[in-house]
Please model this.
Amino acid sequence: MPTTLSPQSSSTRPRPTLSPAQTRLRAEYRNLALWTLQGWVAMFFLAAGYAKISEPMDNLVALMTWPAYVSESLVRGLGIVEMVLALGLIAPLASWTLGRGPLLIAAAGLIGLETVMLAVHAVQLDVGLALTNVALLAITIPILLGRRVAR
Model:
């Protein structure tokens, strides 16, 4: 007859209950970690978007191969989209009345953009840029998951 573990068995320890102060402290640490990640992602995409808008196409083609296969308008438009989404990630800093909406939309948009660009770089066998997108996804997904739940 199979044995079942009771909640009081030695292999499953009950979680200690946290005091209200400990709960608030954990929430503060979590909030600080999420804002740090949001700042990193926003800085990356502001810089990447600005480069796509301001750099000559020859320089962009030398840095990344994919701009050679698309129109200049698409590259410039993608730069604008990246900058808008980056600003959306940090929008609650400008006004708390905006709430979580722009932040969640921006995080979801960046995850979609990062996923598409990961596929583009993987098809072109551009390992460095593909790994960069993997790292960006590893940072942006926790932002979306951490901020989607109202606390």
